[in-house]
Amino acid sequence: WQLTGLVRVYLRDGEAIALRPPATVADAARQVHKQLATACIGARIWGPSARFDGQRVGRDHLVADGDVIEVMS
């Protein structure tokens, strides 16, 4: 993954999404479905970009490699 330069973000159900950095929560939601990206108000995040597990963040939050996200709409 380091050679590709992509960021792996996992959805709450375990599915992985590959994104080009810098990627936001809205970018991850757009990869799942276009309508989810427009309805997205933020997410809960577990992983390196969160200060604590389950942190609520806005749609403009930058995700890091290995984050697990639950998109809120």
Provide a concise account of the structure shown.
Helix content is about 20%, strand content about 35%.
Give a written overview of the molecule.
With 73 residues, this protein is of the alpha+beta class. The chain is built from two helices and five strands. It has helices at residues 25-32, 34-39; strands at 7-11, 16-19, 42-46, 55-58, 67-72. A hairpin with an 8-residue loop joins strand 3 (42-46) and strand 4 (55-58). It starts with 6 loop residues before the first strand and ends with a strand.
Q: Whole-Å distance between the termini?
A: 29 Å
Secondary-structure element order, N to C? EEHHEEE
Radius of gyration: 11 Å
- Give the strand tally: 5
Strand order of the largest sheet: 2-1-5-3-4
- Which secondary-structure class do the elements indicate? alpha+beta
> Uncertain segments of ≥5 residues (pLDDT<50)?
none
Largest sheet: 5 strands, mixed
Q: What characteristic shape results from the CA principal axes?
A: globular
Total number of helices: 2
Mean pLDDT: 92
Strand content: 25-35%
Helix content: 10-25%
Give a quick set of tags describing it:
single chain; 73 residues; 5 strands; 19% helix
What is the topological layout?
Elements (H helix, E strand, L loop, with lengths): L6 E5 L4 E4 L5 H8 L1 H6 L2 E5 L8 E4 L8 E6 L1
Parallel strand pairs: 1-5
Antiparallel strand pairs: 1-2, 3-4, 3-5
